[in-house]
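Notes from the 1:1 (GR / supervisor)

We went over the backlog. Supervisor wanted to see one worked example end to end before approving the batch request, so GR pasted a single chain during the call. The sequence is below; no edits were made to it. Supervisor asked that the structure be written out right there so they could see what the output format looks like.
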Amino acid sequence: MCGIVGIYLKNKKYNKQLGKLLTGMMNNMASRGPDSAGFAIYNKSSKFKYTVCLQDNLELKNLKKLLKNKIANAKYKVISDHVVIESSSKPEKTIPFLKSIKQVDLVGYGKSIEIFKQVGNPKDVVKKFSLDKFSGSHAIGHTRMATESAITTDGSHPYSTGEDECLVHNGSLSNHNNLRRTLVKNGIEFKSQNDTEVAAGYISNSLKNKASLKDTLTNGLKDLDGFYTFITGTQKGFAVLRDEIACKPAVIAETKDYVAIASEFQAMAHLPDVNKANIYEPKPGVVYSWGS
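Structure output shown during the call:
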């Protein structure tokens, strides 16, 4: 049992409140996943953003020394043990260098996405990262009850395996080991044994081959064995899919100003004018998307 949440803002007047709205959603899903939590915020920039988690007590001043003359005109935003590095340096040059530094774990990159995740009670994680201070256009989050892999930051959601892409998942996949081997041959890299990271890699691999997000998720119904509710984020928005058995809960609330999704309605009870929203369960095997 895990908790997943997402909110996509149709009305820009709420952009500055995005973090505050997501904070309430995450806190209300804490009981579904007490082991770890994470979230992805989309806030478009003209430059690339690389979110890294610092390991082995690496300090910012030492990170800057390691990156000196390697990443052009870098700016740093430090939040807890994560750093968002903003730069004009392109991913094909920057990512291999970041991955070569043992004390740095790259958790996401793109011109919009920033990802933050830690082990611990979700309410504590949300507070450590000051989620309520974030602004942006859309966001997704996850509270985890560990079943498929260890309770570590690497085992936490969201998972990002492509530019401005991420995935959160409630459920379990039975064929992730075989699928992982196939995706590795196609050049997809994995950092954990978590089944959700494999699903994220499957989506990235398909999008890299020019499939649409809707077609990718539809094809996943036959390629991904197991039970799941997915929320997958892109630079433009997000999409939701429940498997055809639909044993994992999900509810959507949509107004003229936003669309929100969560494992349980209580996660959305604090949202503006939610009492006027169109509230419904996503149908099994049907892709729902906004913005993307």
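Supervisor's comment: The mean pLDDT is 94.
Batch request approved.
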